[in-house]
Design a protein that fits this description.
Two copies of one chain form a homodimer.
Chain A (H helix, E strand, L loop, with lengths): L10 H19 L12 H9 L6 H13 L5 H22 L8 E2 L2 E2 L1 H5 L1 H26 L2 H15 L4 H10 L6 H26 L4 H23 L9 H20 L8 H11 L4
Antiparallel strand pairs in A: 1-2
Helix pairs in contact in A: 1-3, 1-4, 2-6, 3-4, 3-9, 3-12, 4-6, 4-9, 6-7, 7-9, 8-9, 9-10, 10-11, 11-12
Chain lengths: 285, 285
């Protein structure tokens, strides 16, 4: 099928091209301000974390979903995909704060509050979160498809908010640590999985996927997101007792994820998503 | 004119009825969870600040704008108006944090982080901000008017974000204090005015106001928002040198605000907005 550009050996090139597009959107839509027009160095702080080198996995996932089910080349789709990175980045800045995980480094660089101070790090996070919804609403107006981008905003808010990622953070910081594998997986689903699912849903909605395709892609995102966190646990010293179970469960979740793709209207277009699932499954501790 | 229910002596009753509706929306749409399903007491923390007694001035303003120019009784309008309170409340929680203004009390009660800890206060704020955009997107889908609620979301994001309220916060915390009256007024416009303007725009867009009426209402919101902060300065010991000028400028801004209402398609429907402007103008130090 002509659109299956992302499967097999072309996958790396496809993902690299998408990452470059995402970097361009992030940098150009949040331009640097002259120092005397950037009070408190707020924009500089937002750009410092947002433009730090990263895999951009969540927006790439969103674009892979858009390719699988919709009009992947609409300019608004790229903007919509980028909003997931804004939200991911805000969550990292707030997570690193002294009152939260208290991390001095992120991606090999001093964390945001170590450079700009705690107050500005809180505000930079607030600004990035708000910007995500500004971009989605703006894309909805410009594209003339406000309903589609409204569905994307709803998916993002649900995945990122107090029933999703923020709930996972609250559980991680404020509730007893998980003792069973099931409790650990619930934490993964909230803290990490919810935003992965939202990424896939955003790609689907923004690209105009049918309701059936969007639902199938959401099932993929759900399973992929939890599998991603299990993969992370394979080399996580915090939960060594769960490592074997995590490997097993990761495999089962990835099987479920790819099975969801078979129910798409054109399963052959899901090459990029299949490649992402394969890459995750090949991860070794 | 039949719709002019809010002018004159009926104003107090009108505003009280709107406040009661807003309270009901806030409480019922963010229901308490059983303690064992509220990890970290996140939802309890969000409700603690959101449901603390308040004037609900911003959502009342949004509803007054909706009455002036649109279909004020659409259920989505009430939800949209309430989202401004979610954003106002998040900003208060984050402002009170030790790294920001370090306030132990808010509205006569211990501030959020004094009760729930800093980490949960950060997350409660994040959750409330995200919830605002969830409610707007949800109302857009349910009402079948996603373009109108998309415009409301755009206005909220612009007013609340790094070009509006968050920029004002960054200026207040990270830039030299204002020395001239003009600098003080710019700070007011960003820190307070931008969200007032957004409130009026949200009411206009969500209720289906025409572009011309929405623009006139935005001019009202702009001027009213800055005047509101000048009124606050009348009894603010921080800037005694500016008190006389603030009184003068407040009067000029309120004149400009009410003049904007004269260009509405049906100026007689703006009784509630005029009453709000009058009440502010009558404020004594």
């Amino acid at each position: 099928m002509a659109t299956e550009v992302a499967a097999g050996p072309d996958w790396q090139a496809w993902a690299a091209a998408r990452r470059a597009e995402i970097e361009d959107v992030l940098s150009s839509r949040l331009p640097a301000l002259p120092a005397d027009d950037d009070p408190g160095r707020l924009i500089e702080a937002m750009r410092y974390s947002l433009l730090a080198p990263g895999k951009r996995l969540r927006p790439v996932l969103a674009l892979a979903a858009a390719e699988a089910a919709g009009d992947f080349r609409d300019a608004g789709v790229l903007v919509a995909a980028s909003t997931v990175e804004l939200v991911h980045c805000y969550s990292l800045i707030h997570d690193d704060l002294p009152a939260m995980d208290d991390d001095d480094f992120r991606r090999g660089k001093p964390s945001n509050h170590k450079v700009f101070g705690e107050a500005m790090a809180i505000l930079a996070g607030d600004g990035l979160l708000t910007l995500a919804f500004e971009w989605l609403a703006d894309a909805g107006q410009r594209s003339g498809r406000p309903a589609a981008f409204g569905r994307a905003a709803l998916a993002l808010a649900r995945g990122a908010g107090a029933a999703g990622m923020v709930r996972g953070q609250a559980r991680d910081l404020g509730a007893p640590p998980p003792t069973s594998f099931e409790q650990l997986e619930r934490l993964h689903a909230e803290k990490t999985g919810a935003l992965f699912r939202a990424a896939v849903e955003i790609g689907a909605h923004a690209s105009g996927a049918s309701p059936e395709d969007a639902a199938a892609l959401a099932r993929f995102g759900d399973a992929y997101g939890i599998a991603f966190q299990h993969a992370d646990d394979l080399d996580d010293a915090d939960h060594p007792e769960h490592a074997a179970r995590a490997r097993q469960q990761m495999t089962a979740l990835l099987t479920r994820a790819t099975a969801a793709l078979d129910s798409l209207r054109e399963p052959g277009r899901a090459g990029a998503l299949r490649a992402l699932a394969t890459a995750l499954g090949n991860k070794t501790p």
